[in-house]
């Protein structure tokens, strides 16, 4: 029997729109779900933005204050796509109001913030899904299976990269993303958090690390109005960039494997160059987000001069079959968020966590905090 689940979205920039569209697509890709999302309310503090979203997507109610959603009995589940500094306040309030939460990473500014949201959700008995979308790629699921079954032997070392040019232009507006109080640790929380989640998802826990960070664009112009995404501003008052543009990090895993994680938001010539290279005692596996449906695999008994085969993922890998009928048909970024929405609603439906959880967010944030400590002190650090 199918029943409606009242959902709301808090924060309607680009990510709020992606969440909304994912809800609307769920019945098409996952018709077996007994819960069907119903768009009840949307909130955004920018004047007119919530009303525009309601008119475009069919939300029943629009508001400027997210507290109206917390108090709305029609809402049973909430997407939180607001800026990082609001994650803790909104996340704990929604959980304490008895609402399941789908919250974007990194879930606050620190591990303490993420832990507060996780504890509020656990205390209220609600489900919490986190926006670590890259682990949802069917090729990543296939890589995880290859590693778990020993196809490449014992993992020896990994390289995870997340290079982007979204902040490379010197006229990129000085939005909340560049302020420590509202945006936290910059590229650490924005991109490196995804890298940490991928590393943990594929290889297990990170035991210790040594990190270095840098700020390459020290000043940016303040925007004169509301912004969404990565807007530009020219000629405005200059202000300081307070958080990191770049991080590189050596990793030691509990398994004994070693790793390198590198992330940068000002990489000219790089557009969403995200991926990993994982080597084992018998083979290797490679993935590039820009060729999301392909997996480079080397396995066998040759050890030297062993070839790499391109595997096109298809039905049987992750949730691929919900989108395409045969291998090598393309999927896109938004499809990964549909899978995330599916995990969220399935968690609510069954009362069991699926996909990335708030505990994953806590563990990821602890690694990011350790990176910041390591970079500041110039020493190795361990996640608390």
TrEMBL record:
GO molecular function: nucleotide binding; oxidoreductase activity
SUPFAM superfamilies attached to this UniProt entry: Glyceraldehyde-3-phosphate dehydrogenase-like, C-terminal domain, NAD(P)-binding Rossmann-fold domains
Gfo/Idh/MocA-like oxidoreductase N-terminal domain ranges (all copies): 6-132
Gene3D superfamilies documented for this protein: Dihydrodipicolinate Reductase, domain 2, NAD(P)-binding Rossmann-like Domain
Organism encoding this protein: Streptomyces sparsogenes DSM 40356
Domain (GFO/IDH/MocA-like oxidoreductase) ranges: 141-285
Secretion signal span: none
PANTHER family xref list: BCDNA.GH03377
Keyword field contains Disulfide bond: no
Sorted UniProt keywords: Oxidoreductase
Protein name (Swiss-Prot/TrEMBL): Putative oxidoreductase
Coiled coil: none
Xref: InterPro entries: Gfo/Idh/MocA-like_OxRdtase_N (IPR000683), Gfo/Idh/MocA_oxidrdct_glycsds (IPR050463), GFO_IDH_MocA-like_dom (IPR055170), NAD(P)-bd_dom_sf (IPR036291)
Keyword Oxidoreductase among UniProt keywords: yes
